[in-house]
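Retro notes (design track)

What went well: tokenization of the new backbones is finally stable.
What didn't: we kept losing track of which sequence belonged to which structure.
Fix going forward: every design gets posted as structure first, then sequence, in one message. First example under the new rule, 203 residues:
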């Protein structure tokens, strides 16, 4: 009788264990399937993001080039092909060179658009123009460092270049004036650095 009871208990125990093990296996399998599916979805999203970024970069090449008249410093700007430009050249104006560069099309200058690239010749001398940013440099709102373009030393400013506008600006002496080249958004910082690396002019 005792052996029969033992065998019965063992059989029941084995059956319960088998059911528990099978149930646990199914739960683990479902969890693994969910994790795998989530990983695949995430990888696909990442790949799509990378492909879109790669396509956007390819659309920028080959570059376009703008060169101002010699009287305005022969400023040479090499910018992405996918950008548009609007440049005012006025030798008799206080602002002789005033340019806007932006992806796809150039919005109205009175809009709230943060332009990818701006160029301008200020009527101030280089020293006077630089002085207007001195307080911001001193309080840490802007970081200043020396930069050399076309053999001429200038200054690069990074930070809040205007009220609530984060970007970067290059100031260069241009005869009795100042050449200003800047971006109004950190979103275009990579493109801006590329523009600056190819920037040339006649001081």
């Amino acid at each position: 009788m005792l052996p029969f009871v033992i065998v019965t208990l063992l059989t029941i125990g084995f059956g319960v264990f088998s059911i528990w093990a099978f149930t646990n296996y199914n739960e683990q399998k479902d969890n693994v399937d969910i994790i795998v599916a989530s990983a695949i979805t995430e990888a696909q999203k990442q790949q799509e993001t990378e492909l879109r970024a790669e396509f956007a970069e390819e659309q920028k090449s080959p570059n376009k080039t703008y060169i101002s008249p010699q009287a305005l410093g022969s400023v040479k700007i090499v910018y992405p092909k996918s950008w548009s430009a609007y440049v005012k050249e006025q030798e008799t104006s206080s602002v002789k060179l005033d340019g806007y560069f932006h992806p796809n099309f150039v919005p109205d200058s009175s809009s709230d658009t943060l332009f990818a690239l701006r160029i301008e010749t200020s009527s101030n001398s280089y020293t006077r123009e630089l002085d207007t940013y001195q307080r911001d440099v001193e309080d840490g709102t802007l970081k200043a460092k020396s930069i050399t373009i076309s053999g001429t030393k200038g200054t690069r400013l990074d930070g809040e270049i205007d009220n609530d506008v984060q970007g970067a600006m290059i100031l260069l002496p241009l005869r009795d004036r100042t050449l200003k080249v800047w971006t109004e958004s950190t979103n275009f910082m990579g493109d801006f650095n590329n523009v600056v690396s190819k920037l040339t002019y006649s001081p």
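Added context from the reviewer: The chain has a mean pLDDT of 83.
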